[in-house]
Specification:
WH_DNA-bd_sf; D-Maltodextrin-Binding Protein, domain 2; three-stranded antiparallel β-sheet; transcription; transcription regulation; Arc Repressor Mutant, subunit A; HTH lysR-type domain-containing protein; alpha/beta; LysR_subst-bd
């Protein structure tokens, strides 16, 4: 028994339109073609799906059950046709992007929301990464990447979006700050845990200014790092946009006398010699 999607669509359209004539008009088919399709369906099923004894055809009880059971199939078929149209038009089925956990993402989220509204059938996958954005882009794990300090500018199209600082901070009630100012040295600081984030890609471990003799505490996400430092369990660098309020409330202290405050440039990047789809271009052009 081979039941075609065309037969199901014919039955569904007759039910929705209330007559075979109207169904034929909607499907741009002859009445005889609709009748032929339905007769073949009934022959394959072994039961009547339409009662044609009255002026208007109506579903039989088995026809109602059959049509109900086919709902998910017709819905998937409609989605399949829409996806085919998207493939033809250049709209991606899926778009992957990564964003550094150190970057402010407020503007990116607004753009993603607009993209989702404009292209509702595109699946957008978001990765929060640590020290791995450029590597993920290089290995085609993502289509777009937002990360700090681009190294290989020749291989990528890029837009510089912002600059932020990474101040060296510690909890204001941390024992280190109870030392005399002359004893608040780097040598004494590294006796306490340095809270660091592990690179998302373990084979691409890139740590900034981490000394071998330091006592380290690795975490996998920026919020854990922030919480551990805030609770006085260690020290480390955090993006200035994350800690402005904590510094004002004096919950964190900037170790200015030990700090050479690095400035980080944030770039939105994608591969230069690659054909990009419509959703990718939409996000790109929003910046």
């Amino acid at each position: 028994m081979i039941i075609t999607i065309d037969q199901i669509i014919c039955l569904k359209t007759v039910y929705e339109e209330g007559s075979i004539s109207k169904a034929a008009d909607k499907l741009f088919r002859a009445k005889s073609a609709i009748n032929y399709s339905l007769n073949n369906l009934e022959e394959q099923l072994g039961f009547k799906v339409l009662d044609k004894s009255a002026y208007r055809p109506k579903l039989t009880p088995k026809g109602e059950e059959f049509l109900f059971k086919s709902k998910s199939l017709t819905k998937e078929y409609d989605l399949f046709l829409e996806n085919c149209q998207n493939i033809f038009s250049g709209v991606e089925m899926k778009l992957s992007l990564s964003a550094s956990s150190m970057c402010s993402l407020e503007e990116l989220y607004k753009v993603i929301k607009s993209a989702m509204n404009k292209y509702p059938t595109t699946e957008i996958v978001m990765h929060r990464e640590v020290l791995s954005g450029e590597k993920m882009l290089e290995e085609d794990l993502v289509d777009l990447a937002l990360f700090e300090n681009l190294n290989n500018k020749e291989s990528y199209e890029y837009k510089k979006l912002e600059t932020f600082k990474l101040p060296l901070v510690i909890a204001s009630d941390h024992p280190f700050l109870k030392l005399n100012k002359k004893d608040q040295t780097r040598k004494n600081l590294i006796k306490h845990p340095h809270i660091i984030q592990r690179s998302t890609m373990r084979d691409f471990a890139l740590n900034r200014s981490i000394e071998d003799e330091e006592l380290k505490w690795e975490v996998t996400d920026i919020l854990s790092k922030k919480e551990l430092i805030e609770q006085g369990l260690g020290w480390g660098r955090l993006s200035d946009h994350m800690i402005t309020g904590l510094l004002k409330k004096k919950k964190l202290t900037h170790l200015k006398h030990l700090d050479v405050e690095p400035k980080m440039e944030v770039f939105l990047c994608r591969k230069r010699h690659k054909v990009h789809g419509e959703v990718n271009n939409f996000i790109w052009n929003c910046f």
